[in-house]
């Protein structure tokens, strides 16, 4: 494992999770967290950094596709899970990129509507998805370093020029709020959906390397990529907290990021950042539509028609959902994430653990328990929290919308003990 391979792999992993749309999340978290910014940062990085990187480690172990993540439950469950994951990806984070682009790069300079932006945006996405080209891949490799440079400048200027005079936190449970906001990065979903691409790339470049060497490379690269993500996310949260008294309390996520950029670097740099973020969002949208279309194509005997229909449906969804503001899309995404994220996190955990602790019976038990105990959190996210509270108050951590965590871990331990007793008998 040489330094060049480690550097390339680390940056590839970092780029996989460093979505431009995610940049709008940390500053507002810090802005609202105030003096408790560090607790929010820890929570955000649990779900936005640790879990996604565990997903890559799971892929490294499986050496397969997303289907392999859930196949121990059953092939049917895995197929349904894959369809749900792609449906969420194409219906929520993809349209959100258009909304972010509108609020950061269009709205501040032109009197234009969300509908017009999303329509033009997804017409272009459809053209690029149908006519595949490596141009966007090349642009994407330049965008991440460019955005990083601007962000590092913003964070450095903020830390060294502003007083560490924080406003009081508006959160009752900053750590759990940070975890739930980390769901909105969609990075755990990204790790499961496209993580296999990274593994395949490593296998192609390191053909002569032994399996253990590849695992070691992925673990080391995961550490450095995770450290980079932690520094960026925590730095943006701290920056937001430092500006806690500088903007209106009801400021939007995109407006806050733009405001901080202008305050630290000026209007010219803010325009530069807006263009970079918009281009990065566009490449993300094309990647999501293309990936989803490829999946549907594979389910219909490599049908080109299935690919094109899926791409068209994805772009139509993009226009319909992308016409709403970022805050609304994030609010709409919450119920879907409260349903799919616990399942995804537990599948990642089960696939990371040694096989002796995760036979099919354990897989089925733990996933079933996770689904059952995540239902109250899902119902709470759609406004039924008070109605079901008398029936769910006994569930540990349910008040933090993490009621599935301890039951799932208990199911893992108990099902393993039961399995061992059965084998001994």
Features:
single chain; 425 residues; mainly alpha; Amino acid/polyamine transporter I; globular
Word description of this protein:
- The protein is mainly α and 425 residues long.
- The chain has 17 helices and no strands.
- Helix 3 (37-62) packs across helix 15 (326-352).
- Helices cover 79% and strands 0% of the residues.
- The chain folds into two domains: 3-328, Up-down Bundle (Amino acid/polyamine transporter I), CATH 1.20.1740.10; 353-425, no CATH class.
- The model has no long low-confidence stretch (mean pLDDT 87).
- It has helices at residues 3-17, 25-33, 37-62, 67-70, 75-91, 93-106, 114-130, 135-161, 174-183, 187-205, 211-242, 253-265, 267-299, 304-322, 326-352, 360-392, 405-424.
Kindly provide the name of the CATH class of the largest domain: Mainly Alpha
- Per DSSP E runs of 2 or more residues, the count of β-strands stands at 0
Distance between the termini: 45 Å
The best one-word shape is globular
Radius of gyration: 22 Å
CATH topology assignment of the largest domain: Amino acid/polyamine transporter I
Domains, number: 2
Low-confidence stretches: none
The average pLDDT score comes to: 87
How can the largest sheet be summarized? none
Number of helices: 17
Per CATH, the architecture of the largest domain is Up-down Bundle
Q: Approximately how much helix is present in the residues?
A: over 70%
Tell me the fraction of residues in β-strands, as a range: under 5%
The fourth-level CATH homologous superfamily of the largest domain is Amino acid/polyamine transporter I
Protein name: Branched-chain amino acid transport system II carrier protein
GO molecular function: L-isoleucine transmembrane transporter activity; L-leucine transmembrane transporter activity; L-valine transmembrane transporter activity
Organism: Flagellimonas pelagia
Pfam families: Branch_AA_trans (PF05525)
């Amino acid at each position: 494992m040489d330094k060049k391979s480690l550097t390339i792999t680390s940056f590839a992993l970092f780029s996989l999770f460093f979505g431009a749309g995610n940049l709008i999340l940390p500053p507002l978290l810090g802005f609202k967290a105030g003096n408790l910014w560090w607790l929010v940062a820890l929570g955000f990085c649990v779900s936005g950094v640790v879990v996604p990187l565990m997903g890559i480690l799971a892929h490294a172990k499986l050496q397969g596709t997303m289907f392999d993540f859930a196949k121990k439950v059953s092939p049917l469950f895995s197929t349904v899970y894959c369809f749900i994951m792609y449906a969420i990806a194409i219906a929520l984070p993809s349209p959100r990129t258009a909304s972010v682009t509108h609020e950061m790069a269009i709205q501040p300079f032109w009197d234009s509507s969300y509908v017009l932006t999303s329509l033009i945006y997804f017409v272009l996405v459809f053209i690029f998805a149908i006519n595949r080209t490596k141009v966007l891949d090349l642009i994407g490799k330049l965008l991440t370093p460019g955005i990083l440079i601007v962000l590092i400048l913003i964070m450095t200027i903020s830390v060294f020029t502003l007083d560490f005079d924080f406003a009081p936190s508006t959160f009752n449970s900053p750590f759990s709020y940070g975890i739930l906001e980390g769901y909105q990065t969609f990075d755990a979903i990204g790790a499961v959906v496209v993580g296999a691409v990274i593994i395949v790339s490593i296998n192609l470049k390191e053909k002569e390397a032994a399996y253990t060497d590849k695992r070691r490379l992925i673990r080391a690269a995961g550490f450095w990529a995770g450290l980079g993500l932690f520094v960026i996310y925590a730095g943006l949260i701290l920056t937001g907290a430092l500006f806690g008294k500088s903007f209106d309390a009801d400021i939007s996520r995109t407006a806050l990021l733009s405001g901080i950029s202008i305050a630290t670097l000026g209007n010219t740099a803010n325009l530069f950042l807006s263009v970079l973020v918009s281009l990065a969002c566009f490449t993300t949208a094309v990647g999501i539509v293309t990936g989803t279309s490829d999946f549907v194509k594979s389910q219909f005997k490599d049908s080109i028609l299935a690919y094109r229909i899926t791409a068209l449906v994805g772009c139509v969804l993009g226009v319909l959902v992308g016409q709403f503001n970022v805050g609304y899309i994030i609010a709409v995404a919450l119920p879907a994430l409260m349903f799919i994220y616990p399942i995804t996190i537990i599948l990642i955990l089960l696939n990371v653990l040694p096989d002796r602790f995760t036979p099919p019976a354990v897989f089925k038990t733990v996933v079933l328990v996770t689904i059952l105990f995540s239902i109250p959190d899902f119902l709470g996210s759609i406004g039924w929290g008070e109605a079901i509270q008398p029936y769910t108050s006994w569930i540990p951590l349910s008040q933090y919308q993490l009621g599935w965590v301890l039951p799932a871990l208990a199911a893992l331990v108990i099902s393993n003990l039961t399995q061992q007793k059965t084998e001994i008998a």
